[in-house]
Amino acid sequence: MPRSRRSTGRALIAGAAALAALLAGCSAPASTGQATADVTGEVAEGLRPYYEQQVHWKRCEGRFECADIEVPMDYADPGGKRIKIAAIRTTGGSQGSILVNPGGPGASGYDFVRDGVDVMTTDKLRGSYSIVGFDPRGIKRSAPVTCLTDKEQDAAREESYDIDSDQGIAQAVKDATELGAKCAEKTGPVLGHVDTLSATKDLDILRAALGQAKLDYLGWSYGTFLGAQYAELFPERVGRLVLDGALDPALDSQAVTLGQAKGFEQALRSYVESCLAGSGCPLSGSADEAVAQVRDLIRSVEASPLTAQDGRLVPVNTFVSGLITPLYDEANWPALTLALTSALQGDPTQMLWLADQNAQRDPDGHYTGNTTFAFTAVNCLDYPMASDLPTMRKEAAELEQASPTFGRYLAYGGTTCENWPYKPVRKPAPVKAEGAAPIVVIGTTGDPATPYAWAESLADQLSSASLVTFKGEGHTAYRSGANSCIKDAVDNYFVDGKVPADGTKC
């Protein structure tokens, strides 16, 4: 589940959506599962043992097969420590395997396939391919980033900071520094190697472990970033790639946050208009007046945090996280209506429940994943961020102007990474993937987390991209039950090699 940038508060999550039309195209090069050619190809010195390892798939989780694939912790030292990438796959299908990534960074591809493969992929796709999910390095089962106990994470989510004061920002930096130190202590040196470039190199070892000369891949949201980086690094090994809900790899951290701030502001307005047109809406008046009521509610929580029925404190960042969560998918708007109705009466319990879904906290108080910490660790390595106060103040003003409702609470991301134990290893840059086979990029016009303009930009950058546009609301477009135009575009591409025409609109 793709996530948005975080601020001095906590990270946010995602869902998916879709709606309708028809298309055309040419043919993609044939892509078969068990390649007859050498699946290793040219590899850097010291990496051949990883590419040639024997992987043992065992029955697991009922109807699936699971395996661990070894990769080097540090690609600069392949003879050093090894880590294991946990993978799971469906069985059947004669056309090989499609690797999938649901987003993040920090989402578990293992859980995604085990719990949601029937929802997020179609019968046609599963009938033709084995669908392979994996936990990227640093996530859940694959050398996970480990930082806080469940109780410590509960306490951290109850913290709030006076971001208008220098002292408040200094406290946020202090707490983030302490968090980073705990992550380094509990995770070990792999914390410095959970960047996307390293995960991209893992992806190629996974491809070889599946016996495929070329990578067939389906990525949503952050998964598009991983897929685009793969195409840039290994263009000659690109099979059939679909990138749905695209991130623009050329954008810096502030530009990404600005895009999302504008996207969520528009998503809130779309929700409000729908709410006012229906029955039981707790808001009233015009759309502008209703949005203002939501802003007033958020500011009141900032001034005086609420207490949920289980006794937990709900500060503004947790409250905003809960409010944003259902904006990823209009199917979840009724849940937001219930949460707002209760919150306007002084009860934040429903809003906290939404925030708990984001944070992967179950009703017993157990955090079932490490998404929040992995999200931070990956982004601190992937994105250099300004952390000097004047620059952060300037960026915060830009965000609040772009999104009067949410911008304030998406700002000051630099406080998190200022004293992170490891420095960034990547600079944002466009990708070209010269020589790659046709790549399908999908953008949704009303996507709040990965704005449509990013899909346009990525498609322009990639030398062989075909852009498919879904006119609708929600984050990402392809899933079982989605509109037939999008489903057919993706399924016909993977199964029949039919590349949708560039500029296709659904």
UniProtKB/TrEMBL annotation:
Residue stretches making up the Peptidase S33 tripeptidyl aminopeptidase-like C-terminal domain: 403-506
Pfam families: Abhydrolase_1 (PF00561), Abhydrolase_4 (PF08386)
Keywords of the record: Hydrolase, Signal
Span of domain AB hydrolase-1: 98-287
Domain of life: Bacteria
GO molecular function terms noted in the UniProt entry: hydrolase activity
Entry coiled-coil feature ranges: none
Signal peptide: 1-30
Family that this chain belongs to: Belongs to the peptidase S33 family.
PANTHER family: 2-SUCCINYL-6-HYDROXY-2,4-CYCLOHEXADIENE-1-CARBOXYLATE SYNTHASE, TRIPEPTIDYL AMINOPEPTIDASE
Name of this chain's protein: Alpha/beta hydrolase
Source organism (scientific name): Arthrobacter hankyongi
